Each structure stands twice: as structure tokens, then as C-alpha cells.
Amino acid sequence: MILASVGSAVGLGNVWRFPMEAGRHGGAAFILVYLVFVLILALPVMCSEFVIGRAGKANAADSFKHLMPGTRWPLVGYMGVLAGFLIFSFYVVVAAWTLFYTEECLRGALLADRDFGLFFSDFSSSAWHPILFVAIFMAANTAIVASGVQKGIERVSRWMMPLLFLIIVMLAGFSMTLPGASAGFRFLLNPDFSRLTVDVVLSAMGQAFFSLSVGIGCLATYASYFKQDVALMRSSLIICLLDTMVAVASGMVIFPVVFSIGAQVDAGPGLVFITLPHVFNAVLGATPVVNYLFSSFFYILLLVAALTSAISMHEMVTALLHEKSRLTRPQAAVVVALCAMVCAAACSLSFGPWRNITLFGMGFFDLFDFVTAKFMMPIGGLCFSVFAAWVMKRQFVERELCGERPSRSAVWAMTVICLLMRYVAPLCLVGVFFYEMWNWSSQ
Ligand code: PHE
Known about the structure:
By secondary structure, the protein is mainly alpha-helical. Helix content is 79%, strand content 0%.
């Protein structure tokens, strides 16, 4: 189940969203703030979700109900499921782009050095083509969730995830050799604090929550299957570390290329899809067979990473619907998929024919992303950490975090994490939340 949590965390959030956000918000300064938020917000929230999920032995809503009957705490779980559904709806659009690139790569269409900016925008802005790929991805996802073979997928990802990481590190090595790559490294490593606006800070926080899948009860649901001997604090630390390593390594692949080919660093959602094929062609282009095998392998691994994350969202919504209705599991999985398909189509169309349909100045895709990463996940995270740190018994939480007989260093780390859970994370999140409301109302 730890593996399942890593599978949920490591996904497009690391390889696609992290470089996109870092590119939009000035690089190194954003990354620094992001790392701080992983440590002081995402990590304590993850520990809280794990403690609540394992103690409540159910999905987040029912865990709250078991631990605190007769209160409104379960609402946090329901809001999390709604957030999970919304994230799922736009996540599958990016997963569909990944699927398209995998297919094109296998067909050999990405081998020629062409204008990949145009290639990406042609595809993403067309009406039906991306939706078709969303439907294929959704069908595969639904088949897995409905038949309950997630375990099999997770076993597969046990060796695929390290391979993905290895390939990303190799690609980062390749990127380094490109002419003009040093400007990319400067962008990544040399913080320009004058660019550190409040929007950058909020985005870094949203990215930390998104990338680690925390704040919506997804990990609490997984934790309900954890055995008692799993040390929750150690697992959380490992997950945060692995996830962050994949994200930072992805940045090291993307930015040297961006500067090398003179692409727009704030190209938005297309950034990774425009730059990656260039890395493959620029470095491996001279040996087409190697280029073909290497790039195909990469896209397949990325697709699996996207799948394991998408499954975790689909699963939590399906599980709740199955429990609260008379639908069987497969039926519930299909109903969720159909509803998500409608929202995903709207998100996909917002890159093309529906470009001009906006709400609060954003298209559907951006709106779903904004509402979940900057509002719902942080609010959920706040509730999880307040519940674990202030409502549950302290000794119980401490025992859950690092077992019966913790070593001295574990006790030390636990003390820090408890402080983060009790004071730092809630205060920081309340501050951010008020700022957001104030900013929003003054616009
Ligand atoms: N963390 C996942 C990723 O990085 C996305 C995700 C968010 C998955 C929320 C589940 C819940 O791709």
C-alpha cells in the first residue's frame, strides 16, 4: 500500500505540472518555496491523513464518522471526494495528451525534428481528437478500477517507477549537453527573489499539495489498508522525498532544453510536450533506433505513472458512490467515468473551440485546476491536520506515527512533525486562505 501511495503521488504532477508552474513563476525562487511547503505543509498533512485513515479504517468521510460520531467532520471527506473528482476531470486530459504522444512516438512520428509547438497546439486545440484519447484513457482506467486489479498495476509500477526516475535522470544528463543549457540551470538554481510575489507563493503551495496528492483524503483511504506495523512517519518522509526527487529531476530535463531551443519558459500546459521531443531528437537523433526505443519507453512509463495517479482519484470517488448507493462497484466506476468524461470534454475543449468561454477569467481546465489546488486541497489539508493534531489523542497519534519503540532520532523527528501538524501547518494555511479571500474579493 505504500507503493500505492507512491503511485498516487508520482505522476503528471511531477513531470508535467511542476515544470509548468516553475516556468510560469520564475524558476528557482518558486522551487525553493515549493520545497519549504513540501516540508512544512504537505508532509504534516500527509502524516495526518495516514493517521486518520488507518485509525478510522475507511474512506476519509467514514473515518471521521468512526472517530468522531455525530459531528460535521465527515463533510471534509465529502469535499475531498468532490475535489478528487474535479482533479480527475482535468488530469485525464493531460493523460490523454500523454497517450497521444505515446502513440505518435510508437508510430515514429516524433522522430523527425519538427515544430513541436505547432504539433502540440494543433492536437490540443482540435475538438474531437483529444476527447477520443481521453475516452480511451478513461476506458482503461475504468476497467482497472471496476475489476479491482489495482494491486496488479501497483506491482507493475514497483519496477516501472524506479525506471521512470532513472530515465528522467539520464535525460537530465542529456539536457545538460545541449548548447545553451547553462541558462536553464541558472533559471533552476539561481533564485531571483524579486519575482517572489504572493501569487508565486500560492502556486508553490498548490503544487506541493497537488504533487503529493494530499488534502483530499485520497491517501487517508489508502492508509485504511495499511497494516499496523507500517511506520507512518517514515513512509511519509520516503514518499515526499521520492516525489520531490522526480519533480526536481524533471525540471532539470525541461529547462535546459527550453533555453537551448529558445522556447517560451512560461508556455503553460504545453511546456513539457513541446520540449521533450526536442531532447530525444537533439541528443539521440543521430541513432534513430536508440531514439525510437528510448523515447517510446519513456512515454510508456509516463503513461503508467499517470495511470496509477488517475486510478487513485477514480477509486476514491467510486468507493464512496458504491458504498452510499445500490450500485455495484463496476457500475459505480462506470457512472463516475461517464460524469468525469463530460467535465473532461469541457476541459479539453477549453484549449480549442471553447477557448472564449470563461468563468472568473479562466477556461474550464484552468478553473478546475485553480479551485482544487489553491482552495479545496489547502482547506482539506487544514482540516486533516487540525483533526489529527487537536482532536485525536496525542499519545495515540505519536504511537501511530513512529510505532511502539521509536529510536531517538525518530522521537526527535516526530516532535518536529507534531509541531508542524499542530501549529505551523494550520496557521500557515489559515493565513493563506484569508489572503486568498481578500485578494479575490478585492478583484
Ligand atoms: N499527485 C498526483 C500527481 O502528481 C496527482 C494527484 C492529485 C493524484 C490528487 C491524486 C490526488 O500526478
